Structures are given as structure tokens and as C-alpha cells.
């Protein structure tokens, strides 16, 4: 979590440094990202564009693994510190503030020696896009899973499922057309009492809704349409 003291210290240090190097960092990052590297999947939206650019730069500079670890650490940091997201999304941050935030992010994730991530964060700061960091991290994780041949399966249930049930679901889905040949499933169980019962299974970009809530909604619609 970013303490107030740490933020103030980082801001003071950043104020003493010139920000003239930022455009050069951005140009250097953009040049690396522009090299011909084919991402494993196509992503859309501004967050997807930035995530793809970072993936491309990391592959070209042979820093994909450390970059992935740093993005995962940044995502965890954002999840733990509710105020951090608001700070990053503040549109009125000065150049010194942005540099201070970037420096503290790198320090908090032990990533000060990671030039690819450092240049990327500087680019986000320069473009006033630090507020997208959480979404970009999520999209970057999608790219890493795709590159590793992983397909994410999220099983939502009203109550936590035991390992035996999850194992049976994994075996069944792994043999289906939802998962390509040679792919590996990464299974996550989410609990949402609002579905009342049954399951909602998400595999990649496909959703199988077998929840009681969905059946009730369908029944209500049939009753309403018949009136």
C-alpha cells in the first residue's frame, strides 16, 4: 500500500529530477513496440491496445517473464489499495506528481530495474492513462495465458464447489469444442449467492449459464410475454 509519507518522499525526489527524458522514454518504448511481433490473441479497447503494445515490447526486448511478474504485482497492489486507483485516475496530476507515482509504483513492486515496465508506465503517465493500469494488467494476463496455451474457465456457483466437482467439470470441458487441442485449462471457482443455484461456466469468451437465476428470469419472461 502506498503510504502518504512514501508518496510525499517520491514526489520530492521527482521534483528534483528533470522530466525532459520522458518523451525520449516514450519514443524508445514505441520503437520497440512497433517491431514485428505477433501477439497470441487479438484484444480490443484502449486497455487491450496498451496491453498488446506492452506484450510486443516485452517479447522484443526478451523481458516477457519479468514484465508479466511486475504487471501481476501491480494488479495485486491495485487490489489491496483502494485509494491507489483514484490517485492514478486523477486528471489534474502534474508532471512531477506523475513521475512520483510511477517511481513509487516501481519501488513498491521491486521493479526499479525493469526498463520495459518503467518506460511503459512513463508512457501511460505522459498520455494521462495511468487510470487504465488495472484494466491493462488484466488484458496483459490474457495475453500471457494465451501465449502459454492456457484457457481460463471461471465457474460461478452459489456455494464453493469441492475439488472433486471442479475436477469433473474440468475434465468434461477440456474434451469439448470450447477448448482447442493442446490447450490447458486454468479453473477458478467464484461464489455468487445471487445465482441461487446451478452454475455459470465461462470459458474464454463463451458463457454457459445453467443458473437457477437464469431459469427463473426465463420463466418470468415467458409468463410476461403470454399476458
From TrEMBL:
SUPFAM superfamilies for the chain: N-terminal domain of the delta subunit of the F1F0-ATP synthase (SSF47928)
Gene3D superfamilies associated with the record: N-terminal domain of the delta subunit of the F1F0-ATP synthase (1.10.520.20)
InterPro entries named among the record's database cross-references: ATP_synth_OSCP/delta_N_sf, ATPase_OSCP/d_CS, ATPase_OSCP/dsu
Statement: the UniProt record of this protein carries the keyword Metal-binding: no
Record keywords: ATP synthesis, Hydrogen ion transport, Ion transport, Membrane, Transport
Superkingdom of the organism of origin: Eukaryota
Localization (cell): Membrane
Main location: membrane
Family recorded in the similarity comment: Belongs to the ATPase delta chain family.
The protein's name in its UniProt record: ATP synthase subunit 5, mitochondrial
Organism in which the protein naturally occurs: Sporothrix eucalyptigena
Amino acid at each position: 500500500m502506498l503510504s502518504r509519507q512514501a508518496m510525499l518522499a517520491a514526489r520530492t525526489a521527482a521534483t528534483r529530477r528533470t522530466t525532459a527524458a520522458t518523451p525520449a522514454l516514450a519514443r524508445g518504448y514505441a520503437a520497440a513496440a512497433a517491431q514485428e511481433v505477433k501477439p497470441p490473441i487479438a484484444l480490443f479497447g484502449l486497455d487491450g491496445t496498451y496491453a498488446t503494445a506492452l506484450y510486443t515490447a516485452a517479447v522484443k526486448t526478451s523481458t516477457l517473464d519479468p514484465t508479466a511478474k511486475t504487471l501481476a504485482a501491480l494488479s495485486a497492489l491495485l487490489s489491496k489499495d483502494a485509494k491507489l486507483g483514484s490517485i492514478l485516475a486523477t486528471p489534474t496530476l502534474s508532471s512531477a506528481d506523475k513521475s512520483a507515482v510511477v517511481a513509487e509504483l516501481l519501488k513498491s513492486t521491486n521493479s526499479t530495474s525493469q526498463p520495459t515496465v518503467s518506460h511503459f508506465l512513463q508512457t501511460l503517465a505522459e498520455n494521462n492513462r495511468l487510470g487504465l493500469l488495472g484494466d491493462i494488467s488484466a488484458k496483459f494476463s490474457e495475453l500471457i495465458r494465451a501465449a502459454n496455451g492456457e484457457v481460463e474457465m471461471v465457474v460461478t456457483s452459489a456455494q464453493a464447489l469441492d475439488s472433486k466437482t471442479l475436477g469433473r467439470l474440468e475434465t468434461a470441458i477440456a474434451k469439448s469444442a470450447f477448448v482447442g487441442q493442446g490447450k490447458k485449462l486454468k479453473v477458478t471457482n467464484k461464489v455468487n449467492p445471487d445465482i441461487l443455484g446451478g452454475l455459470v461456466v465461462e470459458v474464454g469468451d463463451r458463457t454457459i449459464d445453467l443458473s437457477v437465476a437464469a431459469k427463473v428470469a426465463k420463466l418470468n419472461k415467458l409468463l410476461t410475454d403470454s399476458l
